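Re-run with default settings, no changes from the original entry. Doing this only to confirm the output is reproducible before filing.
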Amino acid sequence: MAERGRPTDYKPEYAEQAAKLCALGATDFELADFFKVDTRTIYRWKNVHDDFCQALIVGKENSDTRVERALFNRAVGYSYESEKIFQSQGEIIRAATVEHVPPDPSAAKLWLTNRKPNDWRDRVEQHHSGSVEVTTKEQRDAAVAAATRADR
């Protein structure tokens, strides 16, 4: 029996290309744009082609790890080598230097909120006391009637 439907545009080399794109931070929408297909086609390729699915998982994990490392560096601060260029009496002077980026409190809070949520999440403790009474329409009507009789 012949297969129905349009033949797939998928090619085995797409898995490697997709892994590289995902490692650079590409989303499924951007992959669809790159391969000139609809986003639904990317989803279908993930379901049908295991090599493509695994390539996306690995590529996205690599980019997530890179972002985690960058967030951590922002949270604790970091240093990097740089070069300052000066001019003195018409002569250009290059001086190696170390630049310091101070810790970012917002990045530290985000990191701790996600890594130690029990200690750092913003939470509002609400304590309730008392009891809840459930009344029926008949009970409310009887209470209104009793209050009306008491007012007379």
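The radius of gyration is 32 Å. Residues 14-121 form one domain.
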